[in-house]
Write a structure and sequence with these properties.
There is one protein chain. By secondary structure, the protein is of the alpha/beta class. The protein is built from 17 helices and 43 strands. The strands form 11 sheets. Strands 12, 14, 15, 16, 17, 18, 19 and 20 form an 8-stranded mixed β-sheet that branches. The protein has a 7-stranded mixed β-sheet with strand order 3-2-1-4-5-11-8, with helices on both faces. It has a 7-stranded mixed β-sheet with strand order 34-33-35-36-43-42-40, sandwiched between helices. Strand 42 and strand 43 form a beta hairpin. Helix 2 (about 25-35) packs antiparallel against helix 9 (about 290-300) and helix 4 (about 90-105) runs antiparallel to helix 8 (about 235-245).
């Protein structure tokens, strides 16, 4: 992952995501040359995206010129999404790329293990009930042996002070990996790829978060956050920009100027007295070539920020000297870094783009390659190795003059679909991703192999420069947007809904949307419910078109599946079968993301009733609840600002707020009085969970409610009915313990800590070993109407097709009818 330097990095991270070849700024090139001096690496270790200490990463990478990386155990799959409706693996994909973009800004690199984030856990014991500890230690050892850090730094301690079971688990795994990485008897299968490596020390980066402090007397103190004229800000300011890229998590962070202290405590290894690198020679003496370090100093001293190309001659001499270094690791690593610096110093720009964002393997597309160099030293393109052939050129690029080459390129037929490697196979246990090949372990994403290789000669040496096949468009508000070409199946299909309901009369209508990038002739659509198939024959389509085919089932045909069931779809044409659904994720701060799932839908048989028929919905951070309610037979209208008027709301049997509505919708402060007037006049208001972060109002109900961060994370936690005869538990659906079976990830989150005595509590529940929480649902009558505050995790249960959660929510919406 190429490290980009502000301000150029910030510009490109906002407007161009593909890894096209771009020269760095003078400041970036200077920083990269300075990094050549240091023969050491630092690995930061934590559990999730946004756990990393971006201020420390930015300082190490840009002030100390140290190669630095962050290893996150998970991709953040179990968190909440403040931007949209994505959950689970889709959210993990978003947060992976938010981390990648953050690293582009702060200059560090990124690694992961295969752990799936299953949501908040309170202890590491609970965490390791889900995760295979030894497997994750093995993944961490792999990264240590690959990256070879001298220092490992943990964000969290291995105990309850970590504040999250997965946080504590990250410290436990880090310490065990530190001990195992240098032992050849541990995970010996890795040694065919990388040798053993023993870091010098592992440290805990103690912290103070609000009123929580893990800092102790005697912790090593390190001042960071200094101002850098090269980037025009302090590293604390840069850290705020980097961390604020975690937009889906709502992790916007202030850019704080000024020097601040970081604190460290030894976990294992050699003690620390004066420096993070005590006892480690990080200079070129480490490779027995101290003169190389002096040579780099001379290049830095003579560096001309107006003309970085003036350093080319010295850089080429330096390359000649580094080639003679006997230490294989440092020779290989520093030559790779130096080659990038040389190319940047030539001012080389190369891009290769088409006008369409996706293609199928084997297809031919027109592409444009553009090349330019801005160096007084001759830069010659010897040849270009295209994905479908070679072109010998031996063409000297004129100084600062753009060269354009138009060529049709055939995508190799063997090119795999563009998808995250960790999602290419379904997880076998729901707790660990499947890594298809060992060599991908740790990578944030698979290396892009769909490139043209431009062989560039400078001073008699040829440098192969990969240029990715990309898609480029001009966006009216963002300017040029460049993204890698996405390879897709010739045909994709998806159900019109991920959840279907059998009609009251037993019939079912299932819609399947087909998109084809090839001509289809006499294809057959097959829907399979586990026992029988429905077939639609004679489907013909022109490439580039879409159609939706509805398959109807009679009550007799669905009767064979007495319980809920799944429908799977396959489109067959001759010997070819297509069964993949393409899922796209599009947000401005990350590239367009693509992953595939098998085409299927879950079919539910209704076991609920609702006396509420028409619902007004106030959007929050994004959840699928209104879609599920519509499938359940209710009319759900998404309310506009002009609708939030007590008199206009009279037509609704109930109003439901989306998750985190008080956090994401700033107008809730002025809407709440109208909503309370609606309730007082006889309406019903049901509020889903909100958090303590950035609340637009603290008036959550007709009487005071104070939120907390308390939650019940064990999805199978026992639920006790405090008021068994309460209307919420009996009308129109009789709620029993069975309605709480099969919940996913958690019971609920951000439960109120305090509430007015006028509220009734309905449920009592708790995680093992903890005091019972009674605020999973608060109910009160207010005026002629009803108010319910329910931080239960409906937003996870309804998309999963949990009928007990549907029944309970319908009772809440129907409490006034």
């Amino acid at each position: 992952m190429r490290r980009l330097f502000l301000p150029l990095a910030f510009l490109f991270s906002q407007f161009s995501f593909a890894q096209q070849v771009r020269p760095g700024t003078s400041a970036q090139i200077y920083n990269e040359i300075a990094r050549l001096k240091n023969l050491t690496n630092v690995l930061y270790f934590a559990a999730h995206p946004d756990d990393e200490n971006t201020r420390l990463l930015a300082w190490l990478a840009n002030d100390q010129h140290i190669r630095t990386a962050y290893l996150s155990l998970t991709r953040g799959d179990g968190g909440q999404n403040i931007l949209g409706k994505e959950q689970g693996a889709a959210l993990g994909l978003i947060r992976t790329h938010e981390l990648i973009e953050a690293r582009r800004l702060d200059g560090a690199e990124q690694f992961f293990t295969r752990a799936i984030d299953f949501g908040f856990s309170k202890t590491h014991q609970e965490t390791f009930k889900h995760w295979n500890e030894d497997q994750l230690v093995s993944d961490a050892v792999w990264v240590i042996r690959k990256f070879r850090p001298d220092v490992i730094i943990c964000r969290f301690p291995p105990n309850e002070q970590a504040g999250h079971g997965q946080h504590a688990a990250s410290a436990i795994i880090a310490e065990k990996a530190f001990a195992a990485a240098g032992d050849p008897t541990k995970y010996p299968d890795q040694l065919k790829y990388y040798g053993v490596w023993q870091p010098k020390r592992i440290l805990f980066n103690s912290f103070r978060f609000g009123d929580r402090s893990t800092i102790s007397e005697g912790d090593f103190k390190l001042p960071v956050g200094q101002y850098s004229a090269l980037i025009g800000m302090g590293y604390g300011e840069l850290a705020g920009i980097s961390r604020s890229i975690h937009k889906s998590q709502g992790a916007g962070t202030p850019s704080t100027p000024g020097v601040q202290n970081e604190f460290f405590r030894l976990v294992a290894g050699e003690p620390i007295t004066n420096s993070l690198f005590d006892g480690v020679d990080i200079t070129w003496k480490r490779a027995n070539r101290p003169e190389v370090g002096k040579e780099i100093d001379q290049i830095l001293n003579a560096y001309d920020f107006r003309h970085p190309e003036n350093s080319l001659g010295a850089l080429l001499e330096l390359r000649h000297d580094i080639e003679k270094v006997k230490d294989d690791y440092w020779r290989t690593q520093k030559l790779a870094e130096l080659d990038e610096i040389i190319m940047q110093s030539t001012g080389l720009m190369a891009e290769l783009y088409a006008k369409q964002p996706e293609a199928i393997a084997g297809s031919t597309l027109p592409f444009t390659m553009r090349l330019i160099a801005r160096s007084s030293m001759p830069v010659t393109v010897e040849s270009i190795v295209w994905p479908d052939g070679d072109t010998t050129m031996n063409y000297r690029l004129p100084h600062d003059s753009l060269i354009t080459i138009d060529r049709s390129i055939t995508i190799p037929a063997s090119t795999p679909y563009t998808e995250p490697y960790w999602l290419a196979q379904q997880s076998e246990d729901g707790a660990h991703f499947v890594i298809p090949v060992d060599t991908l372990r740790g990578y944030p994403e698979a290396p892009n192999n769909l490139n043209a290789i431009v062989n560039v000669k400078v001073d008699g040496r040829t440098y192969p420069v990969p240029v990715p096949l990309s898609y480029k468009k001009l966006d009216p508000t963002r300017g040029d947007v460049i993204q890698n070409i996405r390879i897709v199946p010739p045909v994709t299909l998806e159900f019109t809904s991920g959840l279907l309901m059998v009609a009251p009369d037993g019939s079912l209508s299932a819609g399947v949307r087909i998109h084809t990038l090839k001509d289809l002739n006499n294809a057959t659509l097959v829907l399979f419910n586990g026992t029988t198939s429905k077939v639609v024959k004679g489907i013909s389509m022109t490439k580039g078109t879409d159609t939706t085919i509805y398959v109807n089932y009679t009550a007799k045909e669905t009767a064979g599946s007495k319980d809920d069931f799944y429908l799977a779809a396959t489109l067959a044409e001759g010997s070819n079968a297509y069964m993949r659904t393409k899922n796209l994720i599009e947000y401005d701060h990350i590239p367009t993301l693509q992953y595939f799932t098998n085409a299927y839908t879950k079919v539910l048989r209704s076991n609920w009733q609702s006396t509420a028929k028409r619902i007004g919905y106030i959007e929050g951070a994004g959840d699928l609840t209104p879609d599920i309610l519509r499938l359940a037979g209710l009319q759900v209208d998404v309310l506009k600002p002009s609708d939030i008027d007590a008199d206009r709301l009279k037509k609704y049997d109930a109003v439901l707020t989306g998750i985190r509505a008080v956090n994401t919708e700033k107008r809730m402060a002025v809407w709440m009085p109208e909503l309370m007037r609606y309730v007082a006049n006889g309406g019903t208001l049901v509020m889903q969970y909100n958090t303590l972060q950035d609340m637009s109002t603290t008036q959550l109900g007709p009487y005071p409610i104070t939120l907390s961060s308390k939650r019940v994370t064990e999805e199978d936690a026992a639920v006790e009915f405090i008021v068994p005869d309460h209307k919420l538990l009996n009308h129109p659906n009789k709620i029993t313990q069975q309605d709480f079976a099969g919940w996913v990830q958690e019971r609920g989150l951000y439960y109120p800590a305090k509430w007015d005595e006028k509220y009734q509590t309905i449920f009592k529940m708790n995680d093992a070993g903890e005091e019972a929480l009674t605020s999973a649902t608060l109910y009160t009558q207010f005026g002629k109407g009803h108010y319910v505050y329910a931080p239960l995790s409906f937003f996870r249960q309804l998309p999963a097709g949990n009928k007990g959660a549907i029944r309970l929510l319908l009772n809440m919406l129907s409490v006034g009818k």
